User: What shape does this take?
Amino acid sequence: MTTALRTDRYELTMLEAALRSGRAGRDCVFEVFGRRLPGGRRYGVLAGTGRVLDAITAFRFGQAELDWLADERVVDDATLAYLADYRFTGQVEGYREGEVYMPGSPLLTVRGTFAEAVLLETVVLSVLNYDSAVATAAARMVSAAEGHPIAEMGSRRTGEHAAVAAARAAYIAGFSATSNLEAGRTWGIPTMGTAAHAFTLLHDSEEEAFRAQVAALGVGTTLLVDTYDVRQGVETAVRVAGPQLGGVRLDSGDLPTLVRETRAQLDALGATGTRITVTSDLDEHAIAALRGTPVDAFGVGTSVVTGAGAPASGFVYKLVARRDGTGADGGAWKPVAKNSVGKRSVGGAKRAERLLRDGVAVAERVVVDDDGDGIPERDAADAARAEGLTARPLTATLMRDGEPDPQWLGPEGVRAARAHCAAAVGELPAAALRLSPGDPALPLVTA
Amino acid sequence: MTTALRTDRYELTMLEAALRSGRAGRDCVFEVFGRRLPGGRRYGVLAGTGRVLDAITAFRFGQAELDWLADERVVDDATLAYLADYRFTGQVEGYREGEVYMPGSPLLTVRGTFAEAVLLETVVLSVLNYDSAVATAAARMVSAAEGHPIAEMGSRRTGEHAAVAAARAAYIAGFSATSNLEAGRTWGIPTMGTAAHAFTLLHDSEEEAFRAQVAALGVGTTLLVDTYDVRQGVETAVRVAGPQLGGVRLDSGDLPTLVRETRAQLDALGATGTRITVTSDLDEHAIAALRGTPVDAFGVGTSVVTGAGAPASGFVYKLVARRDGTGADGGAWKPVAKNSVGKRSVGGAKRAERLLRDGVAVAERVVVDDDGDGIPERDAADAARAEGLTARPLTATLMRDGEPDPQWLGPEGVRAARAHCAAAVGELPAAALRLSPGDPALPLVTA
Assistant: This one.
């Protein structure tokens, strides 16, 4: 399915005007970055990169799209002719999916003619802004859970397509599973879930419902015990399933107290291996507040799919460098930047490296292209070594001549991103994992 | 495209267990409602209803979905056989799209067997929770703008599919247009947009960029004047386009001051008809703060597509009534409700009416089915008349025997919802339009 109309109208009117002015063919570098971390977060987690590559590949104007643009007189005939042949043939590089980022990190760089690259702005930002908001929130929840599994269960609290992207982003950030079946099918993410209150209410009694669930799903299932009365629900659950009952789920009430009481009750009933899962409007702070209780697993819904108070990452897509032409006659690269109050951009193509001392990240170094060849200088690694630091490159090739590198796509890309996120978060200094608002964990330095 | 896997796994495991227990065929009534209005809002606006009907119609399991469920052993063979033939054949009624709602309003009622109706929970909630969050935020912005047009420009700050739904919901709530082209194509919403800062940076000078834009789009276009210096940008814009310039856009800075200065400058240059559009991280409060300035139009992005601080509406889908069987032998209807702490539900099928005095809404009356026939009593209108009130029915038939009423679908449905929203908000008492946090504008009374 084409993504070409998932686009702001002004991308097309800019194209039309640039085709007329003769500037549409200028080689350009666009950069995705965020100006700040929302809500006093100390780090962000980039997600959506693999989906961006799919969206760019699917950015094609078919006859149906061209007919609609013509009927609505969105652009003129010359522009329609350009769009009919449009296929992105440029270069995309950027941070790996799952990477930790800071304000100003050059997250994605798109190189192509103005015409080619400007059209992609909206869909690139839609994907990265949402997916990274979820991953950034999810990573904090994973830290707060201190090794206990967290399942993503928020499909019902975000758009029906966003739900699939949210499951993917949360998994990349370290969640263990999702309730969303489409995320399981499309991205290979483990799915989970057993029953809701409606299942209990459907039956003549809680006991009948539990017997039905155990008959269908086995004694290893998780029974939801708070439809009527938790204490009685737990007693019934163990009576029906026996002490081998897999788990009970608590979805309401004062959880720290309830978890302790339920653990004691289960143990007294001999169900010492029965796990306790909690799922009631949890966020990273509620998860942290359950540290020290005998909780086994978490399910998180609304807060993770809505970015826990920061539902958009605030990334922008800005022109940072251009040439006067294209190809061999294109001339020198010129950094460009806007000067709008509070919204300045930094000109020049960039790459970045994370500087580490003894395996712990201490800074992020951004290397700006300064000899006009469009290739940022790579002597930063040498400079770092001179200071006794190691430099881990952050910028990878994602798409070459319009072809995505397959390692970043599909379930394989998701698995790689998840592993990479765990490693990148693991490099951060301990203070970065604090949940309280603060400054970004790593300073940005320019080479 | 099927919506069948945009579903939480537990809907399918509940189906499996209910098929085994023999309870899957019980006639059920599920109800969508919200327990509270987020953020101290005084009213909500329901959106997404038309999309819900489309999603229910598209909820079919094809061979690809069945194969995946079988491979993953999500459910057993009997359940797969049921899903292969699944098509919703029940009844859906609810509030019209664009309707104003309160906590506890019975927004949507789905009637069918447990098996038929339980499967729809996730996708129904995904659509309504997101779309209504946007519409509820958008309606406050429309009130704050006091008749000035507002365009929705937030596609880049929400998922790439959610962006289309957001444009639709904002338009229903009274926005004038959207930047999103797919929303224009799919839902018939007017689209708008001219140029971004990149267009100015692409050219050798701001003047060259403005000349290019005017050449392509005419002097009626809107020029973005804050790339370098607003005062110089405005001067250049009028010099290039002449005093017939359609508009200028301000996207940064202290807007109230800047709008006044720009208006004075434009007037001094003879461009007295040139309109001023502002677009810098606006929300309902920033819009209200521009009252009294000579601003002409607003563009709103992040805040509207993320629900202005409340990105999910908090709607739930609860079993409220059931019979012991189905059809003629189904027996009496029984209200059912869970008792979970802080999350209670109210049993019984419901309809609702808005009570008005002299055309102003004073309360919402919820009528619960109490004779067990599954049809709520309709004597509320009589009771209202006895009190000198009029009663406007809020519950409409949306889907009969699985077939949606076409008046709620497509661009026609969107236009009807937009007109209905304007009328429903227009009925509210003046205090309901205050932006400060407060109580719900209308009390709920039960008949």
User: Anything to note?
Assistant: Chain B has a mean pLDDT of 95. Chain B touches chain A through 105 residues (CB under 8 Å). Residues 146-308 of chain B form a domain with the TIM Barrel fold (CATH 3.20.20.70).
